[in-house]
């Protein structure tokens, strides 16, 4: 038998074998579908709408060129094109946002059997209010940029901070998510802040209340829990946790809507890897919390809290 004939026969055998394997998929699909409702497994199969995670991430990136015109645009903007450019970008953002808000509200209503809230009209109202809030968001974020510049001698100019600082990215996403959270938009705010968490290592719940001129330096490992309240001109360093005391499974439902995380008053600095826990814990204004400190009790204003310097032991290798 010729070599060419052998090659052709092998190709035909491969094709038949592939089809045989593919023919076994359909029964497996039936088995997998049959398992969906067993043992409390999670799925979202049915007519109930659900927001698109990808579309919500796109909304984040479509909002940045509007909050910081010229920084994240795909084209150069000048005084002659800015109105046209922003008009187009804002209109597209409004359309994208209202669709996802509508899906989120409708999903919430159907999933939890709520009374109808005219989700289509309401989504347009909230979308328009978000556009109206953009000048205020810009103003607040400008103060955050200045706080970063004034608090970090390694920064050379504002552009560097806007383009590259993970802390600013996480805070900007938090501020837009917090606005949506405050206007009772379900699901979307948490998707936004968890995306920022994934990108930066900075975890800020959208329910947190944060004042003006907020700066997170470096940022990796920062966690800020849902009911935390942070005043003006507060600075956090990497690894800081503003969290809740650990709860049992039975306690969680009882405390879900109570204040579980600390309050940080104006002009406080919290250094790297400090942990501050508890809803009754208040860090007084102008206090400084040193690195690696563990706190579950309040601190009066104008207080410095540091660990005692550990004893260093140096031994000669010889």
Structure notes:
This protein folds into 2 domains: 44-201, serine acetyltransferase, domain 1 (Orthogonal Bundle); 221-307, UDP N-Acetylglucosamine Acyltransferase, domain 1, CATH 2.160.10.10. The strands form 3 sheets. Strands 1-4-7-10-13 form a 5-stranded parallel sheet. A 5-stranded parallel sheet has the order 3-6-9-12-14. The N and C termini lie far apart (78 Å). The chain has 9 helices and 14 strands. The model has no long low-confidence stretch (mean pLDDT 90). The chain has 318 residues and is an alpha/beta fold.
> What is the highest CATH level, the class of the largest domain?
Mainly Alpha
In N-to-C order, the SSE pattern is: HHHHHHHHEEEEEEEHEEEEEEE
CA radius of gyration: 26 Å
The CATH topology of the largest domain: serine acetyltransferase, domain 1
CATH architecture of the largest domain: Orthogonal Bundle
**Which structural class matches the secondary elements?**
alpha/beta
Specify the biggest β-sheet. 5 strands, parallel
Biggest β-sheet: strands ordered side by side in the sheet: 1-4-7-10-13
Tell me the count of domains: 2
Number of separate helices:
9
Strand content: 5-15%
**Portion of residues within helices:** 40-55%
Mean pLDDT: 90
Please name the fourth-level CATH homologous superfamily of the largest domain. Answer: serine acetyltransferase, domain 1
Shape: globular
Contiguous runs where pLDDT drops below 50 for at least 5 residues: none
How far apart lie the N and C ends?
78 Å
Tally of DSSP β-strands:
14
